[in-house]
Design a protein that fits this description.
Blueprint: E1 2-7, E2 18-25, E3 28-37, E4 40-46, H1 61-70, E5 73-84, E6 94-103, E7 120-122, H2 130-143, E8 147-156, H3 164-172, E9 177-179, H4 182-191, E10 195-205, H5 216-238, E11 253-255
Parallel strand pairs: 1-4, 1-5, 5-10, 6-8, 8-9
Antiparallel strand pairs: 2-3, 3-4, 5-9, 6-10, 7-11
């Protein structure tokens, strides 16, 4: 069994002993890196491509997740870069996602489209693996990663940023942060029975918050502050044995 890290904005260089490989799936080709850490193979998949050339609305989420499944990956950590609409979370802060609200518009969100295959639904009582979330928090204390708290993630289509009116609505609905990539990635992982958890970094205030314009250099600086420690924390957890019976991630699919 292998483990994987999906890197978002600014999280690409995960290790030194790395070899690059490519896999052909039914949904497209996927390029990824393989790291060996104390005998454990960890897959590193750059969500936007190594040169950050793929915008969020064009990411081939199904190909990415199917590639991990074909590589026998059972546990996945992902990073996300987000804007904050919660006064308690400032640029540079690290948080763990516990739930999401989906406002994407045109993305295919399932491997089960009917046709010649079965009709299936995925159970979402716990969208993110509780075992991986707890393990990250425990290791973060040892690694010196300060976690500001848990957060509800609002996913938008992108690539544009949200308007101030949209942010007010998302906040009223219970959202804490806004990003463009965690749906359908997290949903597809659950359909495939993989344990999946996502850790975010606040890169900017959302539109209309603090009355400031969003600027690219601020996003880069916020990611730079934490990316090495977060990635290293992922690796420390993933290289160890994980109790596969402590969650129900591999039993979330309901096939009719």
């Amino acid at each position: 069994m292998r483990r994987a890290i999906i890197g978002g904005t600014g999280v690409y260089d995960a290790g030194s002993e790395v070899k690059t490989e490519q896999l052909v799936t039914a949904y497209g080709d996927v390029t990824y890196d393989v790291m060996k850490v104390e005998g454990r193979e960890i897959i590193f998949l750059p969500r936007h491509g190594k040169k950050h050339s793929t915008p969020p609305h064009k990411i081939n989420y199904r190909a990415n997740m199917m590639a991990l499944k074909m590589l026998d990956v059972t546990h996945v950590y992902a990073t996300v870069a987000v804007g904050s609409m919660n006064d308690a979370y400032e640029p540079g802060d690290v948080f763990v996602i516990t739930d999401f609200i989906d406002f994407t518009k045109s993305r295919v969100q399932t491997f089960f489209e009917g046709d010649d295959g079965p009709v299936a639904h995925v159970e979402m009582t716990e969208p993110y693996c509780g075992t991986l979330r707890a393990a990250f928090k425990e290791q973060a204390q040892k690694s010196g990663v300060e976690i500001k708290g848990d957060a509800v993630y609002v996913c938008t289509e992108g690539p544009r940023f949200e308007t101030a009116a949209e942010i007010r609505m998302y906040h009223q609905m219970g959202g804490d942060v806004v990003g463009m990539t965690n749906v359908p990635e997290s949903v597809l992982a659950k359909e495939l029975g993989m344990c999946y958890a996502a850790v975010g970094v606040i890169t900017n205030w959302c539109t209309g918050i603090e009355g400031k314009h969003i600027e690219g250099h601020q996003i880069a600086e916020s990611m730079e502050k934490n990316k090495v420690k977060i990635t290293q924390t992922f690796i420390e957890v993933l290289k160890e044995e994980i109790d596969v019976n402590s969650c129900k991630c591999d039993r979330s699919l309901i096939v009719l």
